[in-house]
Design goal:
Elements lengths: L1 H22 L1 E4 L4 E2 L2 E5 L4 E6 L6 E2 L4 E5 L2 H15 L2 H25 L5 H40 L2 E3 L4 E6 L6 E2 L4 E7 L2 E8 L12 E6 L5 E11 L8 E8 L12 E5 L24
Antiparallel strand pairs: 1-15, 2-11, 3-10, 4-6, 4-9, 5-8, 6-7, 8-10, 11-14, 12-13, 12-15, 13-14
Helix pairs in contact: 2-4, 3-4
Length: 292
């Protein structure tokens, strides 16, 4: 009798579990794009000397991707670096000050014993003062060289284009040998760790979503699910009935695969109705070509 009472409860549990699995509808994601795209520009003017990457390459943060001709800036930087690291001028001035201070102390001692005149003491004091001035000047020159080094380093760095993120190269606008001006677009990179896609839904279905909420994402045919994050909800272009597009950002489950090879699905609630984007309006005066 006890078994008979438990059996219906177990069946109900299994049935509810099956219903919950069937409740989700899989929506195939199209036009999957990197979640973060960075357009890198040239910070100086010159000829592109080398481009060390190609579209599709994985790149690391701070990696040099492109170099303008930079031999002149490099030599100026190395020369300034040597002067900045050298303490020869300060050491010479410090040595001279030690000698003049020692001479002043000896002169003062002899003056107390009436071995030198007051005029000789004043001369020794003046020489020590001059030596202190030379040391202060040497230290000031050293600080100026450090500022010059910082400027030289910046001018050299402006000849390079570095990746600001870990990611993948999407496009190279300035190949090796081309001329570039300050502000020109050089390379486009994207964060390969996160992806983004849009889910078009009807106006009523959009109420089921909110920015910051999660949407399950999986590889098609796989049981591995990751939680995507809703980043934005915006009206769909050319929408006739208030259709919305849900932008979802999610982890790239296969970062080694090209985006075109990824087959991804969003698992949506059963009451959500997806929408079909309306075609863009034709320009005024355009006519369709008819066959025959």
């Amino acid at each position: 009798m006890k078994l008979c009472l438990c059996l219906p409860a177990c069946l109900i549990f299994l049935f509810s579990g099956l219903c919950s699995l069937q409740a989700e509808q899989a929506f195939r994601l199209s036009n999957v794009q990197p979640g973060v795209v960075q357009v890198l520009t040239v910070r100086d003017t010159g000829f592109v000397e080398t481009v060390d990457i190609k579209p599709g390459d994985q790149v690391a943060k701070d990696q040099i991707l492109l170099k303008l001709d930079h031999e002149r800036q490099l030599q100026a930087y190395l020369s300034t670096k040597l002067r900045a690291e050298s303490r020869a001028g300060i050491e010479i001035a410090e040595g001279e000050l030690r000698d003049k201070n020692a001479n002043l102390n000896e002169t003062l001692d002899r003056f107390r014993r009436r071995g030198v005149t007051e005029n000789q003491v004043e001369q020794a004091q003046a020489q020590a003062q001059i030596a202190r001035g030379k040391l202060a000047q040497a230290r000031m020159m050293q600080e100026m060289v450090k500022l010059e080094l910082a400027l030289s380093e910046k001018l050299l760095e402006n000849r390079f284009v570095r990746s600001p993120i870990n990611g993948i190269v999407l496009d190279i606008a300035k190949p090796a040998g081309s001329r570039a001006a300050q502000g020109d677009i050089a390379i486009t990179v994207a964060n390969s760790e996160e992806l983004a896609a849009e889910i078009p839904v009807t106006k009523d279905s959009a109420a089921a979503f909110a920015v910051g909420n999660s949407v399950p994402i999986r590889m098609a045919g796989s049981d591995v699910v990751r939680q995507g994050r809703i980043a934005a909800i915006n009206p769909m272009e050319n929408a006739k009935n208030g259709e919305q597009k849900i932008r979802v950002v999610f982890e790239n489950m296969r970062p080694t695969l090209p985006l075109a090879a990824l087959s991804l699905e969003a698992l949506l609630p059963p009451n959500v109705r997806t929408a079909t984007p309306s075609p863009a309006p034709k320009p005024a005066g355009s006519q369709e070509k008819k066959n025959g």
